[in-house]
Amino acid sequence: MTLDTTTLIAILAMAVVTYFTRIAGLFVADRLVLTGRAKAAFDAIPPAVLVAVIAPTALTTGWAEAIAAAITAVAAFRLPLLGTVAVGVVAVVVLRNLI
Description:
By secondary structure, the protein is mostly helical.
């Protein structure tokens, strides 16, 4: 197996751009003054990301995971992110043992 230099440079360039895109969010987010709808939309990002990560598992596995995903989605709107993850883990463990 050989690695083309152009391919390696492209992969490294994509990695650098991805890293800077992610780190730029930390610097830009501190400078934003959000009110009203913009603040509500910004606050909805963590639960939305969590649901996007959970949805494929909920749709491709059994009933225990699907029910636990629904419980986790509801918890995401009420609890902080760490609490939501804890509720999801406990829900899937309990439901796997019951179902």
